[in-house]
Amino acid sequence: MKRTYSHDHFAGSIINWSYGSYNFGLLGLEVMIQKAKAHGILTVVAAGNDNTDAAADPICRSRDTICVGSVDEAYRKTPGSNYGEVVTVSAPGHDIVCAAPLIYSNRFVVETGTSFAAAYVSGTIAQFIGYEKLRSDAGTILRRMRDNWNVGLLQGFPLHPATPNTFNSNGFFKPNKSADQPYVGAPV
Questions:
Q1: CA 158, CA 34: separation in Å to the nearest integer?
Q2: N or C end of the chain: smaller count of CB under 10 Å?
Q3: How far is 81 from 179, CA to CA, in rounded Å?
Q4: Cα–Cα–Cα angle for 147, 149, 151, nearest 5°?
Q5: Is 6 helix (H, G, I), strand (E, B) or coil?
Q6: What value, to the nearest 5°, has the Cα angle with vertex 33 and ends 78 and 183?
Q7: Phi-psi region at 181: left, alpha or beta (left = phi > 0; alpha = psi -120 to 50)
Q8: pLDDT tens track for 12-71
Q9: What is the pLDDT of residues 138-181, one digit of tens each?
Q10: Residue 126 and residue 92: Cα distance in Å, rounded?
Q11: Which tens digits make up the pLDDT trace of 102-120?
Q12: Nearest-angstrom CA–CA distance, 41 and 65
């Protein structure tokens, strides 16, 4: 029996994309990203770990993705994080404790990279989607992200091309939200 889905079966989802190379056919991917966004599904992309301008990556360069750079606990650019004008936001990506594959004797490993930063941003988006039941409204989700970002904290990014000085935040500690809101913009 063939299974079919309505066009909004995956509404309220997030595509978290972290890949090691972008040397593959992109035309179909760009169309897929645009269609997903039209149905309220945002694509979060790791900026990469080559310490270079993220604009070299056509998926990060797409205006339909959220390209994520990586910073440490002091908001400093991690040594390998890509940077530049196409980076939408930065998030924690340094010394992240992760579950280890079975081949390691430890149960946890400490890793660094934009893949981990992208996961933080996807988690923040999931919070907004879940709290407000935003199944197909990419515009509202993006507005919640921007309203809750911390601005002006980032350090160590090259001046040219300039990286937006925006840090991912779930909004819990934003001073401009009401006491009964979990984040700025949340319905009361």
A1: 30
A2: N
A3: 36
A4: 115
A5: coil
A6: 60
A7: beta
A8: 789 999 886 655 556 788 889 999 998 889 999 999 999 999 999 889 999 999 999 999
A9: 999 999 999 999 999 999 999 999 999 999 999 998 988 988 99
A10: 17
A11: 777 778 889 999 999 999 9
A12: 10
Structure tokens at 77: 């650019």
Position with higher pLDDT, 37 vs 8: 37
| E strand intervals along the chain | 14-17, 42-46, 65-71, 89-92, 96-99, 108-111, 150-151, 166-167
Residue 166: both structure tokens together: 């925006």
Q: Which two tokens stand for residue 94?
A: 């340094």
Please name which of 67, 94, 65 lies closest in space to residue 156, comparing C-alpha atoms.
Answer: 94
Residue 5 tokens, joined = 């889905």
